[in-house]
């Protein structure tokens, strides 16, 4: 068993969903139940392998890559099939393994218009493989392939199963992300040539960049390419405009996956690739990233305040929340990066939940226009409660997960890594702290206008409005439990991320002194 | 010290062995203080899960849990008092006491975590100077909460290895991470608040079983009372500032939920939102202030470490000032200080028992409590010693007068009490601002009982008057119908007004003396302006309470209900609280008074002995600071006469008014007016009625502006500038593509160029296609192009 995990574990986990896709190809479209079962089984198998990996993970050495697979792949350019898990990727792998099966459970009774469970679930499974692969890839080319594989299924999900303006949103999402990826790829290739290392291995490249003595200018330029690729994916202000459209138009499942996992591909890229490989570049970029991050925090919050649509409001809140994550990364301290990773997981769970609830509200009321809603706590009290808890988590209430992605970031900004301008980051800190007030504002106003009060006349006697159903409970309870548990036991994540993050932090400490 | 009750030491023994000179003040109760807040939090879950199916709809679980917490709190208090008395008895022998951190609490956590903080905080004993006399030093029990950062990192940042409780935690795998502990800190101040919270909470639980009987969300109400109690106790026992934040915000969210208890009506949810958002504004200060202290104390959240370093001068005065100013913002919002007090009167939208528990006796004193917890930071940061004014004393003074003035113009009895609470909280902050630590804490203690008594009394009155709180329209003459409520309300009011020998007299007098202005009082400085504010408030308090009492209980009944005395579950808590309002003041009688009436001198200033860590005397202000003011008989007489005089004049005013027209509640054109006709007075009256226009400023200007024009402008920018630019890139690519196609590339097209060209074209066309409806073809085209592009990338690399 041990040896299976060591050699095949990660591969099995990543590609199990694709086996499901293969199976589904041979099942006729009208066998919906069977498709759902196959999809669920595929993701559960993937999750079981993942759990076995988690169970056998050596948490004492979370800074070291484990279950490493390293085989030749495209010899011409010495790209290798190189996979591994360490403390930085582990929480995100776990998040993905949790969220996708829940999305499939939710889909049991919620296949969006125009139906076709087969195609919809197959795309979900392809997405699953792409996301898992991105988090475990240790080779830049492999990373890039997985990173791009994710785009197509999501493009179709939005474009086919989306809202009224789905095509515009889908194409904008696709092209914008691809535009960034092109720059990222250029940076990857340039790294390959500049270091002359004949490898795309992340760890080796990081060493080569130092030993070959890439100049700061070169690093700044290379970092800039990656910044576009990852920054658009996050998305950072001012590259965020694809996000509200994509989120608003996407079907519930798409929004959940997009918010819970896909946005993290960008932030993960910063922590995994851009920072360790190009530390000098990162140091030059950090003040600018911090600036864009805090602008995003305030700007996203203001955008939320101006929304009249519940889903679009939640979408805009991601811009603000990812601002905290990016600010944490920009401090280049272990405190800040740990908090950023925590923030990624917390945002994934919380915003994923918000989109789930929004989807269920839409299903019942056939609208998400805030003005027309109200009295959810009367018509669907349990769902109203869930919305209440989730908004509280989203505004960073201590005792729930959101807090640990927020306060430690604010704290870390007081004392950024040596070599960064302390005063500047202290200004960022205060702006970020002001952002918490605005966050409370738009989220509580949302809660007040949708959950409190009496139902509007339009829906007061609508028999279609019912409380949470079984599949919703199954999909939501694990996420809600995690939101609470992580709030009180932050060590569940910090203990895993701390060691590898400290290694990254040490690089910058050394650099600053 | 072996006389101290050492019921159970566990790992505490280990700590004692480690440091020979450390003397262990141990008790099972101290080690397990976490039970006090764990029980009500368990009760919260149980009520939510099973409450509705139980005969008393969950109230029984809440009462059982809070009673148990109450008993534990009482036992802890008795143990604490016993320990302190022992220390006093043996104080002369020059024994070295020390505070000890043990790891016994929060049992069941991994052994490695326990090991991590088993470090004796022997700084006081070792450093000498003010060591050797630390009666009432805190007992801290901590375990590791989580680890973050590395040990090496700390070395880089110059962390002093001599800071014992920052020892790196061995994470058991060779590496070491920077440990952030969670735990309980038992000392006089926290024990005092444990008593206050559990007592008032228990009485409010009992009272509520009648008061909210038959409410639409009875079970939910009790669940949140439990959660509130748990959060408050968690905050009170916090040993670190990080925990303080957690508790601080959790009580805030409980307050939000309970203010908005009847959320069907918009004014209630508005009030809840206002409370939460105003507190969030103050929380900016809390987050920043605690961050500043964290780095200033060499990366520590430990309250004790921060205090020690602030006292010993290890943290620069200017840093402390920044932290103190930031934290002051948090105090202003949480404890209703001017100018962030406006949420507190609105918070009266919640059920009355909630107002008594949360918005009078406990949660709103959190800010005051936090000042006490980090007193050295404020004391040094504001340079209280030898001063004559500082930010804290000024805000406290402004609040106490400003809040008191607003209490005059309210029709709603709960609003009178709410503004009175604002005013009294100002008194406490003023006390702390002038260096009268014990006086401030003592006032917090006495105020909790008499103000809870008054609020619950107001609830009882409204219970009898069709749930109205309008004194002018629906009350009057109620003393005949509700004798118990009337009597207890009078006792509470006298205590609040500071009439001897009731509780408020002792604490208020101590604060006035503490300002150090009256001849012979000494004190920490000469705080003339705060002192004058304090005296004015003493008079105002008596006056507005007399008005409220007259309007409610005297004259003729003006309402349309059939008033009746409330049932025993309401009156018994009133009687208990009124009884406490009579007696608790005697806990801190000044020594001259004690000797004058012939009691043994050991009866004097007990509260000070028990609550003020003798630490603080040495601890705050070093050798030259922090002196206790001496009581002054003449000051006590003057203040009492002021209050009595003010009360009497209001009484006469209403007496005369009543003689003219028995139904009148104020002088009007018919009865001959004062207030509304004399020019200057009328303006003043209007300003008060409009609450200094602060609500207009906040709600209409700031919040309205942000939600309206500012947010809309930002969104406009988003849609019309940023997003338009994205679209523009698309359309201009099409234009470029056309140009290239037409003039440069007619015909001959290779695969890659074709792909990217049509890609750009498609993007632009699609954007236009949204209008022209030709989306489908372009989408197909685009998808094809994109696929090719991806393929090109993969094959090319």
Give the oligomeric state: heterodimer
From the alpha-carbon coordinates, what is the Rg of chain A to the nearest angstrom?
A: 22 Å
**Mean pLDDT metric of chain A:** 89
What percentage of amino acids of chain A are in beta strands? under 5%
Q: Terminal Cα separation of chain A, in Å?
A: 46 Å
Number of strands of chain B: 4
Terminal CA distance of chain B reads 77 Å
**Number of E-state strands of chain A:** 2
Domain tally of chain A: 1
Number of helices, where a helix is a run of at least 4 consecutive DSSP H or I residues of chain B: 33
The assigned structural class of chain A equals: mainly alpha
**Which pair of chains has the greatest number of interface residues, and how are they split between the two chains?**
A-B, 82 and 72 residues
Largest sheet of chain B: 4 strands, mixed
| Percent range for β-strand residues of chain B | under 5%
| Principal-axes shape call of chain A | globular
Low-confidence stretches of chain B: 1-24, 92-133, 152-175, 769-775
Q: Tell me about the biggest sheet of chain A? A: 2 strands, antiparallel
Proportion of helical residues of chain B: 55-70%
Overall helicity of chain A: over 70%
Mean pLDDT of chain B: 77
Describe this structure in words.
The complex is a heterodimer of chains A (513) and B (797). With 513 residues, chain A is mainly alpha-helical. Chain A has one domain. Chain A has helices at residues 2-25, 32-56, 89-107, 117-136, 140-149, 151-161, 166-195, 202-211, 216-233, 242-249, 252-277, 279-305, 310-330, 334-365, 376-379, 381-394, 407-414, 422-450, 457-460, 470-488, 491-512, and strands at residues 66-74, 79-85. Chain A is globular and about 70 Å long. The relative contact order of chain A is 0.10. Chain B is 65% helix and 3% strand. In chain B, strands 1-2-4-3 form a 4-stranded mixed sheet. In chain B, helix 8 (188-211) packs antiparallel against helix 15 (352-361), helix 11 (266-296) runs antiparallel to helix 13 (317-334) and helix 15 packs antiparallel against helix 20 (437-464). Chain B starts with 10 loop residues before the first helix and ends with a helix. Chains A and B meet through helix 5, helix 6, helix 7, helix 12 and helix 14 of A and strand 2, helix 7, helix 10, helix 11 and helix 31 of B.
């Amino acid at each position: 068993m041990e040896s299976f995990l060591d050699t095949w574990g990660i591969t099995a986990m990543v590609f199990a969903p694709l086996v499901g896709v293969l199976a589904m190809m041979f099942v006729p479209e009208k066998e919906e139940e069977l498709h759902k079962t196959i999809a669920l089984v595929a993701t559960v198998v993937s999750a079981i392998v993942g759990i076995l990996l988690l169970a056998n993970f050596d948490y004492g050495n979370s800074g070291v890559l484990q279950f490493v697979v390293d085989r030749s792949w495209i010899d011409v350019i010495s790209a290798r099939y190189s996979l591994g898990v360490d403390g930085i990727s582990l929480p995100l792998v776990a998040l993905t393994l949790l969220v996708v099966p829940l999305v499939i459970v939710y889909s049991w009774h919620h296949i969006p218009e125009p139906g076709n469970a087969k195609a919809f679930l197959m795309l979900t499974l392809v997405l699953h493989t792409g996301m898992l692969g991105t988090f475990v890839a240790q080779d830049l080319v492999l990373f890039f392939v997985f990173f791009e594989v994710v785009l197509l299924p999501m493009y179709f999900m939005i474009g086919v199963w989306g809202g009224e303006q789905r095509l515009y949103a889908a194409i904008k999402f696709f092209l914008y992300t691809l535009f960034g990826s092109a720059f990222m790829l250029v940076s990857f290739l340039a790294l390959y040539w500049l270091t002359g290392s004949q490898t795309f291995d992340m760890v080796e490249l990081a060493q080569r960049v130092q030993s070959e003595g890439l100049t700061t200018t070169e690093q700044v330029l290379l970092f800039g390419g990656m910044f576009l690729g990852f920054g658009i994916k996050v998305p950072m202000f001012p590259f965020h405009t694809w996000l509200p459209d994509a989120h608003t138009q996407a079907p519930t499942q798409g929004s959940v996956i997009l918010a819970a996992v896909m946005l993290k591909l960008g932030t993960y890229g910063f922590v995994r690739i851009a920072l360790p490989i190009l530390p000098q570049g990162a140091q030059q970029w950090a003040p600018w990233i911090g600036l864009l991050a805090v602008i995003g925090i305030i700007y996203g919050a203001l955008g939320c305040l101006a929304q009249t649509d519940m889903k679009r409001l939640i979408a805009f809140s991601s811009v603000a929340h990812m601002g905290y994550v990016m600010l944490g990364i920009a401090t280049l301290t272990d405190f800040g990066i740990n908090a950023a990773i925590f923030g990624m997981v917390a945002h994934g769970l919380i915003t994923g939940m918000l989109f789930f609830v929004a989807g269920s509200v839409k299903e019942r009321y056939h609208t998400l226009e805030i003005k027309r809603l109200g009295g959810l706590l009367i018509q669907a009290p349990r769902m109203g409660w869930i919305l209440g808890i989730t908004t509280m988590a989203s505004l960073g209430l201590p005792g729930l997960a959101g807090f640990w992605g927020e306060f430690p970031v604010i704290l870390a900004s007081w004392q950024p890594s040596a070599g960064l301008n302390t005063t500047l980051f202290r200004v960022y800190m205060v702006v970020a702290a002001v952002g918490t007030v605005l966050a409370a504002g738009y989220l509580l106003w949302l809660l007040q206008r949708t959950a409190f009060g009496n139902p509007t006349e339009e829906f007061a006697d609508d028999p279609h409005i019912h409380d949470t159903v079984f599949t919703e409970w199954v999909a939501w309870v694990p996420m809600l439990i995690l939101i609470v548990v992580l709030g009180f036991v932050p060590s569940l994540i910090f203990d895993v991320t701390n060691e590898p993050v400290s290694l990254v932090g040490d690089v910058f400490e050394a650099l600053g002194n | 010290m072996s006389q101290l009750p050492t019921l159970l030491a566990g790992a505490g023994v280990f700590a004692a062995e480690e440091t020979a000179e450390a003397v262990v003040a141990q008790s099972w109760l101290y080690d397990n203080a976490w039970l006090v807040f764990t029980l009500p939090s368990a009760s919260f879950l149980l009520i939510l899960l099973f409450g509705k199916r139980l005969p008393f709809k969950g109230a029984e679980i809440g009462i059982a849990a809070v009673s148990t917490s109450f008993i534990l709190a009482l036992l802890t208090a008795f143990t604490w008092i016993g320990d302190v008395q022992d220390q006093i008895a043996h104080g002369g022998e020059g024994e070295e006491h020390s505070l000890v951190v043990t790891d016994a609490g929060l049992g069941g956590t991994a052994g490695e975590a326990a090991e991590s903080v088993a470090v004796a905080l022997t700084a006081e004993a070792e450093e000498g100077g003010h060591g050797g006399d630390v009666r009432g030093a805190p007992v801290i029990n901590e375990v590791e909460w989580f680890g973050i950062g590395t040990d090496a990192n700390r070395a880089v940042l110059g962390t002093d290895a001599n800071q014992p409780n920052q020892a790196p935690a061995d994470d058991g795998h060779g590496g070491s991470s920077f440990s952030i502990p969670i735990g309980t800190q038992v000392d006089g101040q926290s024990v005092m608040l444990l008593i206050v919270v559990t007592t008032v909470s228990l009485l409010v639980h009992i009272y509520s079983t009648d008061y909210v009987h038959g409410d639409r969300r009875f079970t939910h109400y009790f669940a949140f009372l439990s959660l509130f109690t748990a959060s408050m106790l968690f905050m009170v026992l916090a040993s670190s500032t990080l925990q303080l934040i957690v508790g601080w915000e959790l009580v805030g969210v409980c307050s939000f939920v309970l203010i908005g208890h009847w959320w069907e009506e918009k004014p209630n949810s508005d009030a809840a939102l206002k409370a939460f958002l105003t507190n969030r504004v103050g929380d900016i200060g809390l987050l920043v202030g605690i961050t500043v202290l964290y780095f200033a104390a060499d990366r520590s959240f430990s309250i004790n470490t921060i205090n020690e370093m602030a006292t010993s001068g290890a943290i620069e005065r200017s840093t402390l000032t920044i932290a103190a100013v930031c934290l002051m913002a948090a105090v202003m919002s949480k404890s209703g200080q001017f100018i962030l007090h406006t949420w507190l009167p609105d918070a009266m939208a919640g059920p009355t028992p909630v107002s008594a528990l949360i918005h009078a006796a406990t949660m709103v004193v959190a800010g005051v409590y936090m000042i006490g917890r980090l007193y050295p930071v404020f004391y040094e940061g504001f340079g209280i010693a030898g001063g004559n004014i500082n930010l804290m004393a000024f805000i406290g003074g402004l609040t106490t007068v400003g809040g008191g003035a607003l209490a005059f113009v309210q029709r709603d009895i709960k609003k009178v009490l709410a503004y009175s609470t604002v005013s009294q909280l100002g008194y406490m902050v003023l006390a702390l601002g002038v260096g009268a630590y014990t006086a401030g804490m003592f006032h917090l203690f006495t105020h909790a009982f008499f103000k809870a008594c008054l609020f619950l009394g107001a609830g009882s009155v409204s219970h009898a008057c069709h749930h109205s709180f309008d004194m002018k329209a629906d009350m009057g003459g109620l003393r005949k119908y509700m004798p118990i409520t009337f009597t207890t309300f009078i006792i509470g009011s006298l205590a609040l007004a500071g009439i001897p020998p009731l509780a408020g007299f002792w604490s208020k007098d101590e604060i006035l003396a503490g300002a150090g202005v009256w001849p012979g009082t000494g004190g920490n400085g000469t705080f003339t302006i705060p002192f004058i504010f304090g005296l004015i408030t003493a008079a105002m308090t008596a006056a507005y309470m007399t008005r409220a009492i007259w309007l409610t209980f005297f004259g003729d009944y003006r309402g349309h209900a059939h008033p009746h005395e409330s049932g025993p579950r309401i009156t018994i808590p009133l009687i208990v609280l009124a009884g406490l309002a009579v007696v608790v003041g005697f806990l801190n009688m000044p020594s001259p008074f004690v000797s004058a009436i012939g009691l043994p001198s050991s009866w004097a200033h007990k509260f000070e002995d028990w609550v003020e860590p003798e630490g603080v005397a040495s601890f705050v202000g070093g050798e030259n600071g922090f002196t206790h003011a001496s009581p002054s008989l003449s000051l006590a007489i003057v203040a009492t006469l002021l209050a009595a005089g003010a009360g009497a004049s209001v009484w006469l005013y209403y007496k005369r008014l009543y003689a003219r027209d028995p139904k009148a509640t104020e002088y009007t054109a018919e009865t001959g007016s004062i207030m509304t006709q004399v020019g200057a007075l009328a303006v003043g009256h209007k300003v008060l009625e409009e609450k200094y226009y602060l609500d207009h400023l906040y709600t209409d200007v700031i919040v309205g502006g942000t939600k309206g024009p500012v947010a809309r402008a930002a969104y406009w920018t988003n849609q019309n500038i940023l997003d338009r630019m994205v679209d523009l890139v698309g359309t201009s690519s099409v234009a470029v593509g056309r140009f290239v196609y037409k003039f440069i590339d007619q015909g001959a097209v290779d695969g890659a160029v074709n792909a990217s060209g049509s890609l750009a074209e498609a993007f632009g066309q699609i954007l236009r296609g949204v209008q022209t409806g030709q989306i489908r073809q372009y989408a197909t085209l685009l998808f094809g192009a994109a696929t090719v592009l991806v393929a090109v990338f993969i094959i090319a690399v």
